[in-house]
């Protein structure tokens, strides 16, 4: 497994004005995940969690015209057309409905609850569980209508720094006949690994990370949480693997409860680290694929003070490499310590 992770450390040298222009060496670590092909540059600067939080005035103003608030939901949001039996899908306070701005032929939205704003430390396992059950109900309806669909993703842009255009917390569910670019890459790499080694890569990764104990966080049932060796965001990434779940149907209700319980802990830790925005993507096949597991990536997002600077820059957008200013190992230690409080 070590051969799938590559580290290279280079030094940038400069004359430092804070020390009388003495020469200073600054290490830059380039990490490559040889399995997926992702690359991240870990800059070991002294970092402090950004002291930012959503402005109450922004939240209050957005609530005045929010289409997902209960007083407007029935008149301001679309309904599913036939062959759906009902115009919307409900599970507890969660509601699934069509995406008015679809990203795919089958594109749904799941509103978490009636509450217009939910801080990350208030996403209880029950709130999350209901939203995921509503999401899978929508996916099931799509599959009943079109048996050719074979891939689904459950996605979350939470708050404006993560691309959330509506404050009211909601998921976006996409169902396709073909996998997205990342999903296809992971499927291909997983298949190649299984053919070459006779084993499942994701099971091997879980065993390796448990033994290494640098990035492994915890298990919730058979759902494993760890930080990614090559993170997808400046402040890291939590990778969640549904061990032994090779398709969405394998997750079942108990799996969603375990995921919701573990995710609730991650979100609460993010909040305590002042990461009050995030992206999440859960990838799943709808047909059993023994080489790959259902999995999710949770990436904290921030606007950097004092200018509200984006945490995405040219390296990520133009070169496909993420700049990371907290190492995955440090993030794992932070989350583990906060989880025990």
Question: How would the blueprint of this fold be written?
Answer:
Elements: E1 5-16, E2 22-33, E3 39-43, H1 56-63, H2 70-76, E4 89-91, E5 94-98, E6 106-111, H3 125-145, E7 151-158, E8 170-176, H4 181-197, H5 201-212, E9 216-220, E10 223-227, E11 238-242, H6 248-272, E12 278-285, E13 295-300, E14 303-304, E15 309-310, H7 314-319, E16 321-324, H8 328-340
Helix pairs in contact: 3-6, 6-8
Task: Describe the model.
- The chain contains eight helices and 16 strands.
- The protein is 32% helix and 28% strand.
- The model has no long low-confidence stretch (mean pLDDT 93).
- The chain is globular and about 70 Å long.
- Helix 3 (125-145) runs antiparallel to helix 6 (248-272) and helix 6 (248-272) packs across helix 8 (328-340).
- It has a ten-stranded antiparallel beta sheet, sandwiched between helices. The protein has a four-stranded mixed beta sheet with strand order 1-2-3-16.
- The longest helix is centred in the last third of the chain and has 25 residues, at 248-272.
- The chain has 341 residues and is α+β, with helices and mostly antiparallel strands.
């Amino acid at each position: 497994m070590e051969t799938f992770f590559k580290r290279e450390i280079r030094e940038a040298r400069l004359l430092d004005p804070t020390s009388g222009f003495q020469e200073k060496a600054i290490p830059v670590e380039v990490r490559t995940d040889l399995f997926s092909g992702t690359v991240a540059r870990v800059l070991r600067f002294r970092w402090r969690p950004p002291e930012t939080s959503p402005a109450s005035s922004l939240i209050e103003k957005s609530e005045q015209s929010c289409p997902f608030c209960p007083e407007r939901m029935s008149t301001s949001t679309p309904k599913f057309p036939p062959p759906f039996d009902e115009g919307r899908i409900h599970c507890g306070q969660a509601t699934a409905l069509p995406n008015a701005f679809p990203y795919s032929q089958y594109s749904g939205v799941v509103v978490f609850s009636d509450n217009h704003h939910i801080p990350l430390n208030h996403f209880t396992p029950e709130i999350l569980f209901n939203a995921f059950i509503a999401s899978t109900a929508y996916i099931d309806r799509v599959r009943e209508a079109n048996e050719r669909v074979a891939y689904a993703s459950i996605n979350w842009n939470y708050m404006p720094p993560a691309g959330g255009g509506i404050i009211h917390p909601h998921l976006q569910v996409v169902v396709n006949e073909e996998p997205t670019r990342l999903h296809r890459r992971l499927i291909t790499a997983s298949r190649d690994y299984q053919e070459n080694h006779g084993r499942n890569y994701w099971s091997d990764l879980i065993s390796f990370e448990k033994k290494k104990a640098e990035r492994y966080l915890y298990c919730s049932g058979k759902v494993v949480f760890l930080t990614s060796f090559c993170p997808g965001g400046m402040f890291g990434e939590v990778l969640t693997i549904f061990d032994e779940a090779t398709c969405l149907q394998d997750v079942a209700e108990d799996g969603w409860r375990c995921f919701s319980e573990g995710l609730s802990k991650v979100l609460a830790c993010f909040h305590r680290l002042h990461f009050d925005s995030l992206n999440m993507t859960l990838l799943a096949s709808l047909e059993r694929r023994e080489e790959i597991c259902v999995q999710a990536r949770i990436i904290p997002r921030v606007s950097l003070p004092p200018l509200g600077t984006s945490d995405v820059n040219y390296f990520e957008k133009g070169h496909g490499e993420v700049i990371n200013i907290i190492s995955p190992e440090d993030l794992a230690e932070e989350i583990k310590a906060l989880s025990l409080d």
